Amino acid sequence: xxxxxxxxxxxxxxxxxxxxxxxxxxxxxxxxxxxxxxxxxxxxxxxxxxxxxxxxxxxxxxxxxxxxxxxxxxxxxxxxxxxxxxxxxxxxxxxxxxxxxxxxxxxxxxxxxxxxxxxxxxxxxxxxxxxxxxxxxxxxxxxxx
Length: 145
What we know:
This protein has 145 residues and is mainly α. The chain has one domain (2-144). It contains 8 helices and no strands. It has helices spanning 2-29, 31-47, 50-85, 87-90, 92-108, 113-126, 132-135, 139-144.
């Protein structure tokens, strides 16, 4: 079970990091167009185009949410990668970290579940991983006594 969690966790972290990197690079490549949209929104607001302004404001807010979520996704990818490598020592904390690494970015941008679903599966399986003492069946406790 640990091997499955490690494989899914690493793949999920890599997918999450690559999607975040793609979103960041797309945003940086299109900064000029975003600035033009902001100027267009301001000029339409002065002319009284409330419906067009509302739609552009909504699109800009969505774009900024994706940009912010991409940084959260990047941090979550590094955190989940580190936690999955220490699954034997962290135990159930790894499951919580993997689940949080997928759910928190999904709250900000549901599109992040395209990459985060692997982390959710890995987190669910990590809940079933036995801690080291339980895996030995109490033999370590008898030997220590």
